[in-house]
Write a structure and sequence with these properties.
alpha+beta, 6-stranded mixed beta barrel
């Protein structure tokens, strides 16, 4: 073992060290410990939030959308679907009609009603099951939107409501709600809204309040007849093999169709601002919380400076015995780096333990504020390694100035003033 390392360990274990210096060293370790643990916990929470939000957004919406801009384009959608299926990345396709409506429910017939603006999506249930997680989340389990089993054999189109929307409207399974939609053409001075009654056949829950409180699903044939072309979007929802290739597949579809009557979009483009904001916020939080480790580094500088002043005579003896300036400098660099390493190791352990506890406990969140209803945690080992490296690097950098001062002490002067 090199003498620098042996002496550095001896100084760390020394019982003769000033009590004040020991306390400063402990503060430096504690500061590094708190900074590292806090960084791991905060970044893991942000990673979990980003991952959970992404998975639920992608699960609810399809990866890529193709929509028709004209009635003629919608009439030729079979040909478009065939062309898109030729793209290797495409797994499944589902047709949809999506429009805005008002849902109307009589809490007390003729006395009290509830109304709310909703987004109505018409789909083929089996096709939608292949591209979205919504259908599998419906309770009770249903295979179609038919409601005969709930209304004694009398036919009435069925509707599936988001769980939070149903709670807000005080609607129960089997009850009748009315959808109201304005026609595309309005007569001057007169509006005749289009209405249609639906029986509630189920409820879906994605875990994202924004979706569960605003969306309703009906059969695509009902949606086509209920909404005019101008008042709803008609198109295809496409599921692909790699969700991160959505931009590439989007461009491939545009190249295949080569027509302005079809538009495209994808989940990356639609949510770019949201995930860019989360990414920037993660960087800012990392930089902000790194300040805690920097404060600990200043304590480390102060501690090493006092140790050097206390060991001035021993430094002089080492130099007079032939120790090089580099060797003396490395003693205090090793000592400071070891203190930073201990604080970092303890911080990593504490951070991972707390993340594990939070993951198991599942802390509840208000879904109308945070989109999701539980606190998500996702530990990324790249983040842990980056935080550990940054902490040890800062600790190492903090040792340079006091260690350099130590190696510049003249041997005879150090011994003379002992």
């Amino acid at each position: 073992m090199h003498y620098s390392f042996s002496i550095a360990l001896k100084y760390l274990r020394s019982k003769k060290r000033s009590g004040f210096i020991s306390r400063v060293a402990l503060i430096a370790v504690a500061g590094t410990f708190v900074g590292v643990a806090t960084l791991i916990i905060v970044l893991s929470l942000m990673n979990g939030f980003e991952n959970e939000l992404r998975s639920r957004i992608v699960g609810f919406n399809t990866h890529v959308l193709v929509f028709a801009r004209t009635p003629g384009a919608w009439a030729a959608i079979d040909t478009v679907e065939t062309k898109i299926n030729e793209i290797p990345e495409v797994l499944h396709i589902s047709r949809f009609v999506r429009g805005e409506s008002i849902i109307y429910y009589e809490l007390i017939p003729g006395v009290k009603v509830k109304t709310k603006g909703v987004i109505v999506k018409g789909v083929n249930m089996e096709e939608e099951r292949n591209v979205s997680t919504v259908i599998d989340s419906i309770t009770p389990r249903i295979k179609t939107f038919e409601s005969e089993s709930l209304d004694g054999g009398n036919y009435m189109p069925g509707i599936v409501l988001g769980r939070d929307l149903a709670l807000d409207m005080h609607v129960s399974l089997g009850e009748v709600v009315t959808l109201i939609s304005a026609p595309a053409e309005l007569k001057v001075g007169k509006i005749n809204p289009r209405t249609r009654d639906f029986r509630v056949v189920g409820f879906f829950k994605t875990g994202v309040y924004e979706f569960d409180s605003r969306f309703a699903y009906i059969d695509i044939k009902q949606a086509e007849s209920f909404f005019d072309f101008e008042t709803a979007i008609r198109g295809l929802g496409i599921k692909i093999r790699n969700i991160y290739a959505a931009d590439k597949v989007d461009q491939s579809i545009q190249d295949k169709l080569k027509s302005f009557v079809y538009g495209t979009n994808n989940w990356i483009r639609m949510n770019r601002n949201l995930f860019s904001y989360i990414k920037v916020e993660k960087i800012l939080m990392f930089l902000l919380l790194t300040l805690i480790i920097l404060v600990a580094a200043f304590n480390l500088v102060a501690m090493l400076t006092m140790v050097i002043m206390e060991k001035r005579n021993e430094i002089g003896i080492l130099r007079s015995m032939g120790a090089s300036s580099k060797g003396v400098m490395s003693i205090f660099m090793i000592q400071g780096t070891l203190i930073g390493f201990v604080g970092t190791a303890l911080g990593v352990i504490a951070g991972l333990v707390i993340c594990g506890v939070l993951k198991e406990v599942k802390v509840g969140l208000p879904p109308d504020v945070y989109f999701i209803n539980t606190l998500p945690v996702l530990v990324k080992w790249t983040d842990v390694l980056m935080i550990s490296f940054a902490s040890i690097a800062i600790s190492f950098a903090a040792t340079l100035f006091p260690s350099w001062e130590a190696c510049r002490i003249p041997p005879l002067e150090a011994i003379k003033y002992d």
